[in-house]
Write a structure and sequence with these properties.
Layout (H helix, E strand, L loop, with lengths): L2 H8 L14 E8 L6 H20 L13 E14 L2 E13 L6 E15 L18 H25 L5 H12 L19 H9 L5 H13 L7 H21 L4 H7 L3 H8 L4 H14 L4 H7 L2
Parallel strand pairs: 1-2
Antiparallel strand pairs: 2-3, 3-4
Helix pairs in contact: 3-4, 3-6, 4-5, 6-7, 7-10, 10-11
Length: 308
């Protein structure tokens, strides 16, 4: 079943859906320019913020129809650390997106990721453009920011589709990989290549598209669609589905240790997981605790204390 069909069931819409070409995102991008020294640079970042919000929210990213209440809620924080001259800026980007849980007002994190390798050129009032067929554009430094944002948009859409249908995100992960393969290149541009580090854009999409990591897609589906979505109606069965998702990731982690996608999955989920397993049976609580301590190392002590 496709995401669109599931979402209509998910939201229990009564009216017959109207074919609209509504955008997929309810996105907000904020630019923190406090560290910039000149009023001109700060003003340029204000216009850049407006242009990027327009770019994210008014572009049609897929051929799917998204109703207003189906839009994916996501936030981007561009923290500009330095103006390097010639309208070139160095920054980090925090990417967050959430997915609503059926029968609740709760939204579960899909992605909570910090990208520290964002360098871009922006001239005040310039158009923000992106073309899937010409990712690097005419000026790689100008195109790098829109390519990075488009990349994360496709990852977010892919994760959202994965959470509603098994392997539903594959087409969007492939689009993200297309950006990686055709990314802007330059001396000061990084994050797109395997040799740029172990936790970057290249490795994220490599893990999401390589068949060696297929279990991660099973885990996303089990966690959200079979787990969280049934937590209100069938709590015990839903908790078992979440435990199964953790077990799948644990198997993947045992087979291929220290992969980016394992750490990526758990970012922003520690409190949610603790709430889920606090009511589990002693046996399931112990299973969850042992796996979570091993895989989500930064929150290991929290799991040890909270899931006794």
């Amino acid at each position: 079943m496709c995401r669109k069909t599931i979402v209509w069931i998910f939201y229990l819409m009564v009216a017959v859906p109207v074919c609209l070409s509504a955008q997929e995102l309810r996105a907000r991008i904020s630019i923190n320019s406090a560290r910039l020294g000149t009023p001109a640079d700060k003003k340029a970042m204000q216009t850049c913020q407006a242009a990027l919000n327009n770019f994210l929210n008014n572009r049609k990213w897929t051929k799917e129809t998204f109703q207003p209440n189906e839009k994916i809620v996501c936030n981007f924080l561009l923290n500009v650390s330095e103006a390097q001259g010639g309208n070139v800026y160095k920054a980090s980007l925090t990417v967050q997106a959430a997915r609503p849980v059926y029968n609740t007002n709760y939204e579960s994190p899909l992605i909570n990721f910090l990208d520290e390798n964002v360098t871009f050129k922006y001239v005040e009032y310039q158009n923000v453009e992106f073309n899937d067929n010409r990712v690097s554009g005419s000026d790689p430094m100008v195109s790098n920011l829109s390519a990075i944002l488009a990349y994360y948009v496709y990852v977010i859409i892919g994760l959202d589709f994965d959470s509603f249908s098994l392997r539903g995100g594959d087409p969007w992960f492939q689009k993200a990989m297309n950006i990686v393969n055709n990314a802007p290149e330059g001396r000061d541009i990084s994050g797109w290549k395997a040799f740029d580090g172990l936790r970057n854009r290249y490795w994220l999409t490599e893990n999401l598209t390589n068949n060696r990591y297929n279990l991660i897609h099973d885990a996303f589906y089990s966690y959200y669609r079979l787990g969280l979505d049934y937590m209100y109606e069938k709590e015990a069965e839903a908790r078992s589905a979440v435990l199964n998702a953790i077990s799948l990731i644990n198997t993947l982690n045992n087979d291929i240790p220290n992969t980016m996608i394992v750490q990526f999955f758990f970012q922003g989920k520690s409190q949610e997981l603790i709430r889920i397993f606090k009511k589990a049976t002693p046996e399931d609580k112990q299973k969850a605790r042992e796996m979570l301590q091993k895989m989500d190392i930064s929150n290991s002590n929290m799991y040890k204390q909270e899931l006794k």
